[in-house]
Design brief:
Order of helices and strands: HHHEHHEEHEEE
CATH topology of the largest domain: Beta-lactamase Inhibitory Protein, Chain:B, domain 1
Mean pLDDT: 78
Structural class: alpha+beta
Radius of gyration: 33 Å
Number of strands: 6
Number of helices: 6
Largest sheet: 4 strands, antiparallel
């Protein structure tokens, strides 16, 4: 028969580890590195969320190989469309001109407010806060063939969609 021997004497309090020390030792972490571990984990989560969680953010777009449509992208989509489709979508032009060969130039103008942190901060408006955008289409035989946009049009209009970065930004053809 095997005899088991138990010691009923207790270790002095100073030599016994407390529960916290046992947990830290079992996790392989000291008190100092446990805090660092938590901070690193939170930082990694924050970076992941900022990179992928915000669709449309510059970093998210770069990682997703996407960009927003520009004014030029949108105008170029009208090439090949009928004059009627353009006018139905955009409304009556602000001005139009019929050329000697029978083709037409339709011109759309609108004013937009340029975002100005300085103006918003102090609550004033100046003529420099507003931009006049002129967009023109050449209509030949009832079809949009060329287009142009002034340099004061918004580069990325409100409501632009994300498209592949592989699609080159078109250049105006009516210059």
């Amino acid at each position: 028969m095997i005899a088991l021997k138990f010691s009923l004497t207790a270790k002095p309090a100073s030599s016994r580890p407390d529960c916290r020390e046992l947990r830290e030792k079992s996790a392989g972490l000291s008190r100092h590195t446990k805090g660092e571990y938590v901070m690193k984990k939170l930082l990694a989560m924050a970076i992941c969320l900022s990179l992928t969680g915000c669709a449309g953010s510059p970093i998210g777009n770069a990682l997703g190989n996407q960009r927003y449509q520009t004014t030029w992208d949108i105008m170029n989509t009208w090439v090949g469309s009928s004059e009627d489709d353009l006018v139905t979508s955009w409304g009556l032009p602000d001005s139009s001109y019929t050329l000697s060969d029978g083709s037409k130039i339709l011109s759309y103008e609108h004013v937009w407010k340029k975002s100005s942190i300085h103006a918003q901060e102090f609550g004033y408006r100046s003529a420099g806060d507003y931009r006049n955008c002129v967009q023109k289409f050449l209509i030949e035989n009832g079809t949009v063939t060329k287009w142009d946009a002034s340099g004061t049009c918004k580069k990325v209009p409100d409501g632009s969609k994300l498209i592949s970065k592989d699609i080159p930004i078109p250049r105006p053809t009516l210059r």
